[in-house]
Specification:
Keywords: Dioxygenase, Iron, Metal-binding, Oxidoreductase. By secondary structure, the protein is of the alpha+beta class. The chain has eight helices and 14 strands. The chain has one domain: Jelly Rolls (Sandwich).
Length: 338
């Protein structure tokens, strides 16, 4: 529990173990870029084909888009962040049962990314909760604050439904058969609650380093405090929060299934010196045993597979090591086109 950065009081200077090498530091606080990721109105566009085309273009060009008019109530978007903040503000003893250094523990409160294996730590604490099927896991979740299970449970069900809807629109854009992303391919659903306390010097550290997500699709509730940045053409673009909007990005798994038609976008989280920031990321994963490979429909005929098949669990284990070492996570699975 002493590793939680959110539990430390009156930090006047960034501890040495959090100071990144000069080449990895974000530098001075980035002024929001004039560029921005695409914004897509989910239910305001009545032309489904046009909606699919806009989502596909965003996923091809950026791997990211902001989603408005998505159907999840505004009060729930706020309540889920408030309940998460109430949890992290609890006394240490009230959170102790959930803290663990074991990455295999499903319901887990931890600090940074892989605290005991890292050379440098990141300015973030996180609570990870499995969410599907809800009845299998909800009793393992925190019950303090009193509303935690009710609010998070409602949110988890709704955001999973939204994620599957987005995957179906992407399926249509790729020309895959109906139901392609159902079943074991979208079996696992996790919520990550990310807590970024104020940092004495944001130019020295990061909340999360440059990375792409390993899963199928991520739906992020980033609240009202900026901090997410997306890499585009070697420039970091600050993703400015839009009220009641989600940030959506595709992961490495979907890049492989699309045979490179879609891209998993690099991103990072910067800190700030003034206010705490809380975000909630929803991750849709395949089952551990699922064999990831380019969809047959995209390689039959004249298509050439860009990636070899691999079990998802193997990929996750390599992803953790490759990301920690700064190596491209998909490199070892690429097929030579020579």
């Amino acid at each position: 529990m002493d590793k939680l950065i959110s539990s430390k009081q009156n930090i006047q200077h960034v501890p040495e173990s959090y100071i990144l090498p000069p080449e990895r530091r974000p530098g001075k606080v980035v002024i929001p870029s004039s560029k921005c990721i695409p914004v897509i109105d989910l239910r305001g566009n009545t032309d489904r084909q046009e909606l699919v085309q806009r989502i596909m273009k965003a996923c091809q060009d950026f791997g990211f888009f902001e989603l408005t008019n998505h159907g999840i109530p505004e009060d729930l978007m706020h309540d889920v962040l408030k309940v998460a903040e109430e949890f992290i503000q609890l006394p240490v003893e009230d959170k102790a049962n959930f803290y663990s250094d074991d990455p295999a523990k499903k319901c887990r409160l931890y600090s940074s990314i892989d605290h005991d294996q890292e050379k440098v730590h990141f300015w973030r604490d996180s609570l990870r909760l499995p969410c599907h099927p809800l009845e299998d896991f909800v009793e393992e979740w925190p019950n303090n604050p009193a509303r935690f299970r009710e609010v998070i449970g409602d949110y988890a069900v709704r955001v999973r439904e939204l994620s599957l809807l987005l995957l179906d629109l992407i399926r249509e854009g790729l020309g895959l058969e109906s139901g392609y992303f159902e079943g074991d391919l979208s079996k696992t659903h996790m919520l990550n609650f990310n807590f970024y306390p104020p940092c004495p010097d944001p130019s020295l550290t990061l909340g999360l380093p440059k990375h792409s997500d390993p899963n199928l699709i991520t739906v992020l509730n980033q609240g009202a405090i900026p901090g997410l940045q997306v890499l585009k053409d070697r420039e970091w673009i600050a993703v400015e929060p839009i009220p009641n909007a989600f940030v959506v990005n595709i992961g490495h798994t979907l890049q492989v299934i699309s045979n490179g038609m879609l891209r998993s976008g690099d991103h990072r989280a910067v800190t700030n010196a003034f206010v705490a920031r809380t975000t909630i990321a929803s991750f849709i994963h395949p089952s551990s045993e699922y064999q990831i490979q380019p969809a047959n429909e995209l390689i039959n005929g004249c298509g050439i597979p860009l990636y070899r098949p691999f079990p998802y669990l193997e990929f996750i284990r390599n992803y953790i090591k490759d990301t920690r070492d700064g190596n491209p996570a998909l490199k070892r699975y690429e097929l030579s086109q020579a």
